[in-house]
């Protein structure tokens, strides 16, 4: 099987995220269920490629990004939320928010590359109707 490409995944993820209520749904998975948006997007990507993963492979994907999520992305999101709640007291809030969002986007892309690196070490199973997201949710 050909290796998956992180740039193709990034393009797919950006497109899917912008469709309909997908952003709200993914953020609900993140905020209400503690799920990782990039992992959800990867599972949808695999579905679009007719590739299925096992529960063991899913667990390995989660492990591959867990520390990065906890040490980098979660604190950055918490910082953004705090600043937004206190924006009237923050000089130049708009510029700071813009820079934080830019950094977060770059870090999200890095996490996606981590997921692709991990999944490229797996033997993936072709499947006519995969539903990988149900393994995760």
TrEMBL record:
Residues 51-113 form a coiled coil. InterPro entries: CHP02444 (IPR012659). Pfam families: DUF2390. Keywords: Coiled coil. The keyword Coiled coil applies. The keyword Coiled coil applies. NCBIfam families: TIGR02444 family protein. This is TIGR02444 family protein. It comes from Pseudoalteromonas prydzensis.
């Amino acid at each position: 099987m050909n290796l998956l490409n992180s740039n193709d995944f990034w393009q797919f993820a950006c497109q899917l995220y912008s469709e309909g209520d997908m952003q709200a749904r993914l953020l609900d998975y993140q905020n209400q269920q503690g799920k990782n948006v990039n992992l959800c997007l990867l599972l949808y990507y695999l579905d679009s490629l007719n590739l299925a993963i096992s529960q063991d492979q899913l667990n390995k994907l989660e492990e591959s990004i867990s520390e990065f999520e906890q040490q980098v992305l979660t604190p950055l999101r918490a910082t953004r939320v705090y600043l937004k709640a206190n924006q009237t007291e923050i000089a130049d809030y708009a510029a700071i928010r813009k820079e934080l969002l830019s950094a977060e986007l770059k870090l999200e892309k890095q996490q996606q590359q981590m997921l692709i690196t991990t999944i490229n070490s797996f033997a993936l199973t072709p499947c006519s109707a995969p539903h990988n997201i149900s393994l995760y949710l």
